[in-house]
Amino acid sequence: MLIRGGSPLSGSIVAQGAKNAALPLMASALLLKGQSLTLERVPDLMDIHTMAGLLRNLGANVEFGGGRMKIDVPDELKWETPANLVRKMRASSLVLGPLVARCGKAVLPLPGGCAIGSRPIDFHLKALAKMGAEIDLEHGSVHARTDGLRATRISFDFPSVGATENVLMAASMTPGRSVIENAAREPEIVNLAQALRAMGARIEGEGGGTIQVEGAKNLGSASVRIIPDRIEASTYLLAGVMTRGEVTVNGINPEYLESLIIKLEEAGIFVGVFADSVSVSCRDRRWKGVSLKTLPYPGFPTDLQPQIMAALCMADGTSVIQESVFDSRYVHIGEFKRMGCKLDIQGNTVVITGVSKLAGTEVHASDLRAGAALILMGLAAEGETTVCSLKHVWRGYESLMSKMTSLRADIELIPDQDGA
Ligand code: UD1
Asked: What is the rounded CA–CA span in Å between residue 191 and residue 227?
């Protein structure tokens, strides 16, 4: 992507449906037998197509277009997942819980995804084992089997989003009362619980640290709307800040953006919060440095850490960021420095000394959110910036080119040097 930076963004966009809500919701369809799940506001993203491919490979019929997805699930499902699809995306591990609960067995090659830390799935496996699944690791794949899962009490060492989702799905098809303690509280978990409840499971406490699930042997067809994508929305707001512009994101629940809004206000940025939209206004103003630590929801999201770091690189004064969710999510710092940022990294802490100008150059996206942050840097920098390895960015941002151009960003896609 070639970016001619330096001009303020202005205008409004509508947030996409949340990628991280859509993926577990799609996986939850595997709990159905001869029934269907209909999803509305599904974002058209690479990861969504990967998950659709995975579901089709297991035997489901997936129709997708215009934001609507219908997943028809036959009586018989395959339970062995293909390595080529699973290795593309870590969220593939979300099919494990539904497959074990529904088929009594599953084979899952250890998943891939963004290169941001070691990212094991031991919490998922330990929890499923506690529910009565026998788990073995053979030739890089997880083999799980059971004669029937049993309802039990699971207590996570850390509120893992994916592990909470896997257990929530498996427990929804397990007769009896399961309790999930130290559960993740993300809005995407609440969206998943809403779908499972519509299918027939009885669920209480989602959005809090303890979730109670009364499973049902047979679940029925359901229809659910995906919640707005808080990370996408926040990325566009930060683009408005970084370019000293005025950006409004519509179709969002401002509550999901609370931790960002608090930090923006602390930095002295004007934030407008309305019923279903949030706007920032940063005309001709420099914002102050602030400090933050990434945490599970409702704390500051790790998926926004590279983007807010980009904005803090141009703040007045010093900021400190502590990454507490992932163990090596600072790969983007090398590229930031090439654009003139002043950053000092010590373990999981980064000290940022704000600069007033960034210089455009060629940079490489190492993962999805780092790629988004580099695009923000390019929009704010003087001169031209080329962001390479955009394939990561397409995994999470729908219609990025048209949304950015509607905000008056001067960007275009150019062929890779190898002509791709
Ligand atoms: C989800 C999001 C991802 C986001 C992350 C944290 C989806 C599809 N992806 O990922 O975008 O960055 O939440 O908000 O929703 N961990 C273990 N063992 C496990 C599971 C997790 O050690 O079995 C660790 C991870 O390595 C990481 C931390 O727990 O350090 C959080 O991971 P988790 O909440 O599980 O993230 P994901 O569900 O993979």
From this structure: 7
Annotated catalytic residue within 103, 114, 282, 313: 114
Beta partners for 384? Answer: 4
Q: Which residues line ligand 1 (CB under 6 A)?
A: 20, 23, 90-91, 117-124, 158, 160-163, 302-303, 325-326
Residue 210 CA to ligand 1 centre (angstroms): 18
Of 233, 275, 239, which Cα lies nearest the Cα of 257? 233
| pLDDT, tens digit only, all 420 positions of the chain | 999 999 999 999 999 999 999 999 999 999 999 999 999 999 999 999 999 999 999 999 999 999 999 999 999 999 999 998 888 888 999 999 999 999 999 999 987 644 545 568 999 999 999 999 999 988 889 999 999 999 999 999 999 999 999 999 999 999 999 999 999 999 999 999 999 999 999 999 999 999 999 999 999 999 999 999 999 999 999 999 999 999 999 999 999 999 999 999 999 999 999 999 999 999 877 899 999 999 999 999 999 999 999 999 999 999 999 999 998 788 899 999 999 999 999 999 999 999 999 999 999 998 999 999 999 999 999 999 999 989 999 999 999 999 999 999 999 999 876 544
Overall pTM > 0.70: yes
Q: Whose CA is nearest to atom 12 of ligand 1?
A: 303
Question: Is 103 one of the annotated active-site residues of the chain?
Answer: no
Q: Do residues 159 and 52 share a domain?
A: yes
Residue 85 lies in a domain: yes
Ligand 1 probe mutation, 158, 226, 324, 367, most atoms within 8 A of CB? 158
Q: Rounded to whole angstroms, how far apart are CA atoms 398 and 16?
A: 7
| Owning domain of residue 233 | 2-16+228-412
Q: What is the per-residue DSSP string for 178-232? A: EEEES----HHHHHHHHHHHHHT-EEE-BTBSEEEEEE-SS---EEEEPPB-HHH
CATH number of 266's domain: 3.65.10.10
Residue nearest to atom 37 of ligand 1 (CA): 162
Among the candidates 202, 225, 248, a domain finishes at: 225
